Each structure stands twice: as structure tokens, then as C-alpha cells.
């Protein structure tokens, strides 16, 4: 709610003992921005109350009413000054902000809270890298992203070449375009597949099928490739992560 935002700003504006005024202002701005996003997401998922947070207008109704009257939150002003005459009469005309939730059962709220936490993990771990300074720099970044997708495709078990080619569906189009251009230099007949083949040569071993020509060969992740496995990788399902945890080799 609005009061929480202002309270957070007041707390963040205190100058830390280890920094100067400039660092204090920067820290306050960063903290306020982060808390604002988290606050919005909590309400968007409808788990603000379920997570155990208290709404500021409930704890300091007089301050909330005063700030509404001063126009700090125009969307919350009812247009009738009489509604704010008695701040103690919450059951009367005064309506305090409230949180909507689509969940009807605690189990549904718990599922929404898990999704909220998962989204925070994705936002903090999947920040995009700096913009490439050149075409070659972009190609290098695209190869790294392709390699990461291939590794996490293989941690849940051996895959056929056609299954591994599906990683291009989750890569950005700009990455696929630059990888295709790079692949034309290696194999003009299969430009997209050339980049995938190069990654497979680095991180996987080809297992020839014993079923003859009717069965496709499979690719299996090399032992060294497990060092690149991220247990929180968001392009993998929970089931695939569970399988990967069971298959992960013990020891270094």
C-alpha cells in the first residue's frame, strides 16, 4: 500500500555508516525500486495477506486518511469529505484498501506464493547480459545461450538430435538469426544445425542406436557438462529437475 512505500523511503534515506551521501541516495533509490516491484507482485498474485504482511492503512489509519485528503492517492479518494470525518469509523463510510485474491483455499494461495517466489528467482538470476558491442560479440553470447539450453536439455537423460533441435524454439529470434549466419560458414546446407552440432561436440557424446537405421542415435551429456547444470533453470519442468537430481554424478 501507499503508506508502506513512503515508510520504506523514510527508512532507506538514512545514511549508512559505511558510505557517503551519494551512495546513500543510490542505495535508497535501488531499495525503493526493488521493494516497489515486490510489493506490486505480491498484490498481483493476491498473496499479500497470505504471506503475513500487514497493510499500512490498517496500522495507521489516521495518517492514511490525512494523506488521502492531501491528494497523495487520488485514485483512493471517494470524493466525499464526510467519509473521512471519523477515522475510527472504519465500518462506516471509510473504506480502507484491501487485497483481492483469486484463491479460495489455502492450498491455492500456497501455489500462488510458490509461483511468486519462482518469478523472483527468474527476475534475479536471468537478467539479460550487456548489449553486444559487435556482431561477433552477439554471436558469442548466442552460442553461450545455446550451450546452456543444450546442457539443460541433456541433464534429464539422453536425447535424439530432433529433440535437441527444439532448443531453438526457446532462444530469442535474434540469437537464432545470428547462429544461422554463423552456421552458413560451416555448413550452408544446414546453417541452424551447424551451431547445434558444434555445441554437441563440446558437451555431449553420441550413442549409436543398437536398433539399426530405424532407431535414432542419442546424445548423452559428458560428465564435465554437469558443472554447468543450474537447479533453478526456468526452462526445465519440475519433473525434469527431479530426474536430473537423480542422474547427477556423485563427486567432483
From TrEMBL:
Molecular functions per Gene Ontology: ubiquitin protein ligase activity; zinc ion binding
GO biological process: protein ubiquitination; ubiquitin-dependent protein catabolic process via the N-end rule pathway
Keywords from the UniProt entry: Metal-binding, Transferase, Ubl conjugation pathway, Zinc, Zinc-finger
Gene Ontology cellular-component terms listed: cytoplasm; ubiquitin ligase complex
Keyword match Transferase: yes
Reaction catalysed by this enzyme: S-ubiquitinyl-[E2 ubiquitin-conjugating enzyme]-L-cysteine + [acceptor protein]-L-lysine = [E2 ubiquitin-conjugating enzyme]-L-cysteine + N(6)-ubiquitinyl-[acceptor protein]-L-lysine
Pathway: Protein modification; protein ubiquitination
Family: Belongs to the E3 ubiquitin-protein ligase UBR1-like family.
Functional note: Ubiquitin ligase protein which is a component of the N-end rule pathway. Recognizes and binds to proteins bearing specific N-terminal residues that are destabilizing according to the N-end rule, leading to their ubiquitination and subsequent degradation.
PANTHER family registered for this protein in UniProt: E3 UBIQUITIN-PROTEIN LIGASE UBR1, UBIQUITIN LIGASE E3 ALPHA-RELATED
UniProt protein name: E3 ubiquitin-protein ligase
Originating organism: Odontella aurita
